[in-house]
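User: Okay, second chain of the day. Same drill as before: sequence in, C-alpha cells out.
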Amino acid sequence: MLKKILIASATLMALVLAIGLALPSKYRVERSTVLPASSEAVYVHVASLKRWEEWVPWNAKRFPGNQWVVGGPELGVGAVRSWSGEDVGNGTLSLTEADPKTGVVYEMSVEHGEYLAHGRISFSPEDAGTRVTWVDEGEIGGNPFAHYLVPLIESRLGGHIEEALANLQKQVEAHPLPAQPEPEPEPEPTPVVQAPEPSPPPVFEPPAPVSGAETPQGVTPPVEGTGGVVSPPLVEGSQSPAPTEVAPTAPVTTPPVAEPAPASPGVATPSGEPAPAQPVPATEPVPAPASAQSPSPTSAPAGASSSPTPP
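Assistant: Same drill. C-alpha cells below.
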C-alpha cells in the first residue's frame, strides 16, 4: 500500500513539474485610460518619480515601515526610485526615456537583479484628451514552480496599474498645467524699395560753326575789333540786356569799281552839265547795325551820274 502511495506522489510531482516547465516564464500587463488633459499636463506627473508617491499604490501610505528613496534629476531621464523593507522587498526603478509627447520608459530590478522588468507609460492624442497606456512586463526565472505564479502576478499587477491610472487622473484634474500664452505673430517685414540711381545730367554741346553761313535774322553781326561781343539796339524804356557773345564772321570784301572811260579829245563837255565824278578808291566797308541798310560801296555828288555823258 505504501508503495502505491509513493508511486502516485512521484507521478503527481512529475506531472506538476512538466506542466510548470510548459508554462510561460514571462508576464505582461497592459492597461489604458483617457485623461481629459494634454500630454504635457500628464507628463509632469509621470516623468517626476517624486510625484509617484501621490498616485501609484506602492508608497509609504500603503506600506508603512518601508523605505522609499528618490534620486537623480527632478524630471526626466536619470530619475531613480528605490525601495526596501520586509513587505516590499528591495528594488530600483529608473527612467531611461522621457518625452512630453510620447511618455516615459523605465527599467526595474527586483531582489538585487534576480528579477528584471521593464515598462513604459505612453501618450497618444484622443478627441477627449490624451490616452495613457501603461505596459509592464518581466521575467520570473527558470523555476518551473514560479511559472504557476504568472497568472497571479498579471492579475494583481493589473489591478495595481488600474488603481494608479485612476489616481493619476485625479492628480491631473487637481493640478492642471497653466495655459501657455499664444505667441504674438511676428510683424510682416516691410519691403524695401530701392530708389533708382540718378541719371547723369545731359551734356550740352554747342553746334559747330558753319563756314559761310548767313547770319540769322535778328542777330547783329559783330563789329571788327570788338572781340565778337556786340550789344543789340536799345529800346526806350527797356533795360540793357547782357552782351551776347557770337562767333566772329569773315569780313565782307567789296569788289573795286571800274574807272570810267575818258572823254574823246577835242570834244568838250556840254555846258551846264557837271563834270564827271572821279572814282573813289575802294576802302574796307564798315558794317552797319542790322537795323540800318548798308550803303553802296561808292557815292557820287548829288545830281551827277555814275558814268560819263557821251559826246
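Residues 150-174 form the longest helix (25 residues).

User: Thanks, on to the next one.
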